[in-house]
Amino acid sequence: MRQSITDLIKYTSSGLYCSVADVWIDPSKPVKRALITHAHMDHFTFGCDEYISTFETAIILKDRLGKEINIKTYDYNKEFKINGTKISFHPSGHILGSSQIKFNLAEEKWLITGDFKRQKDETCKEYEIVKTDFLISESTFGLPIFKWDEPQNTAIDITKWVSHSPKKVSILFCYSLGKAQRLLNEISKTNFKNNIHTHRSIFKVNNCYKKSGIDIVKTNKFDQTKNIADLKGSLLLLPPALHRSAFLKNLKDIQTGFASGWMSIRALRKRSGYDKGFSISDHADWDAILNTIKESQAKNVFFHHGDSEALNRYLKEKTSINVLEFGYTK
Amino acid sequence: MTLKNFSRLFLDLDSCNSTNKKIEILQNYFSSNKALENSWTIYLLTGKNNKRFISGLSLKTLFSEIYEYPLWLIDYCYLKVGDSAEVISLLLDDKIKIKNKKYQDVSLHELLNKSFPELSILKEDNKKLRLKEIWENIPKDNHLVLNKILTGTFRVGVSIGLITKAIAKLINLDESIISHRLMGNFIPSHESYKLLINKKIDPSELNYKPYPFLLANTFERKIIDKSINEFQFEWKWDGIRIQLIKRAGEVSIWTRGQDLVNKSFPELEEKISHIKDDFVIDGELLVWNFKEGLPLNFSFLQKRINRKKPSRSIQKSLPIIFIAYDLLEINGEDQRGSNLEIRRINLEKYIFKWLNERQELPLIFKLSDLIYPKNWEEVETFKNNSRDNGTEGLVIKNKKSIYTPGRKKGLWWKYKVDPMQLDAVLIYAKGGTGIRAGLYTDYSFALWKNGELIKFASAYSGLNNSEIKELDKWIKQNTIERFGPVRSVKPEMVFEISFENIRASKRHKSGIAVRFPRITKWRKDKLIKDADTLENAEKLMLNK
Known about the structure:
By secondary structure, chain A is an alpha/beta fold. In chain A, about 25% of the residues lie in helices and about 25% in strands.
């Protein structure tokens, strides 16, 4: 039962939970009913009785969890009700199908941003500004040192990096879902003519994107049993889990790179163990988080995912917005 | 034309992991830039005496005041980045928004010789104006390098060896000659670079310069297959390695780190200057207890090194000794091509002569004693007892070895006594800086005393990257209290801490101080009740 105005959504050991609707958001443990903001591995889990997401997210979820899962889909902006609570999905601009989730109960509005970005990305729907009373925002990159460059500049850096080493295989590590497709799309807009190979996990997601009507440039499916000499001078996209994997150790004449927002910090770049870091992120940077809060007109803000101490203090000092901490229940 | 080029060089080197590629990059750079700029580049890359024009703290403060930016927010960013120069360059990206501006390119010489020294002595208000002007007139991607030079923290993964190789390749000259020329004080100028790349070798120019040191390898068990008679054995002293040079009436005292330390040890300089012969001797400098004939702890030596003008009373209370162990040059003749046996005979001959001639010399100068183990078992015994005479093991030298630069295999070995060890409990953790920023990597450990855990040592090294990450996560989840960057954690984790020496200390609550502590094992198998007591530590101190 709700005890006060600020706890429609609580933080539990399984993730965010709305007690009135009796529904979890991106739970980390199996629960009865789960709203899924997007299909990145750390935002859903196996074994929930019921999943609810956008249509696009469901395509990928089925691909990852199996076709037999019980999943209900709703279009963006289409309101539905659970236990009397009005709920709707809104584009968050993070990856294909990613959404913010709005809760509306007795004229009190709550918005969970999920992972979001404000930069342009042609592979998914653009972030929609949604007005709310309470905002639960991600804060992965909640420091002013994070300020993203235009993705097209990063794509050009990547193509230069590949072209300058024609005798090497240039292996770029990036997340299979979202980041890979965005990179491919940005690279397709440059005059890069070399071959591009993608790991099967990326190849598979590319097909999911195509099913949803998003055109992804054609790539060769990477087969590690094939003669590696064929790859010389080409760009190979692999998921980060394969970095330092056994078969890479046998490869000579390779250079490795990693595409992530964290790569904008030299210490992290050096520590990462990749030869080169390319800064590109599907999350909001500092300015984008602050703008989003402002545009949402929220009076109360919670932060979720990431260090938020700097954001907390900044909002307290510079604005009249309430920064709240989650009530925690088991 | 060149802060830009130098920034480019920095970025290229910074994102390159191949040694050969780095040499190529350097070679290209040196051949396409002017001598004066190259000299400053070498000065910066070797990072020998990089001057600090502004401290990291005042760089943050100045930025905060110039752009009315909250200092606490800069500090939060610092925790993530671990480098003031980089934090400010990242924040500058946001503050300087003018596009399509015609940027200036300044020379390194102009910056390091004029702009920065002038800036550093300006009064606060003018300093702010001047710094703002500098920042806003150079392109964004030069800010990092500029700030690093300003704060004296410029470093990139390039060793002096790599620069030596690049220059040697560039002019097609032997590496050891370049290495010779690069030793010691390299004062940037058009001439110094021209001298560096001069294809002709002038002996007089090298008068005050040391030879590159021969470095010992770690003991390899395979050498015990050889006859003991092939080797020379000496004690391994825990002092600083020194090359003592007297040529043409001038004495130079060089450390292995290529610092000239005459000023810290004036009594050595003075007494050596009376010797009639010219020479270059390799040896060890120690603070010595003349009554007992034993060295004092390294910390006393550190006090001496840090003082550039030691008073008479310091010279008296912390007397030094130079232990000679190799003769590299005598009266202008290079001895390094002779094998060790012959060098040793000459070393003894000359040292006995000098000690006889100058009565004051034995009070500061001594020959390194040889040890004569009969077999390899006895070597082991000598090593294990080395703490008895204040040494940390043995140095084993191939009698046939010639004196070659660097750590070549098969010449000298250091055979160190096993470190002392205690199992201790992790109680505090502190955030790291630089490459370890954002992770808790500086740890404090405690031992039991009457049921209480007393801090006894701090250590930074010894864990591998995945252990660091695992421990970092554990620390974040098991924090009891925070004091700024430091967290106290639940006493739960036990680590094996190794160290080289232990002594009584009034400055520490535990009453003991250890030298070079490091983590050698994460004892997940142990509970905190199994950790050592302070009493055990005191026993170690008595038994050493």
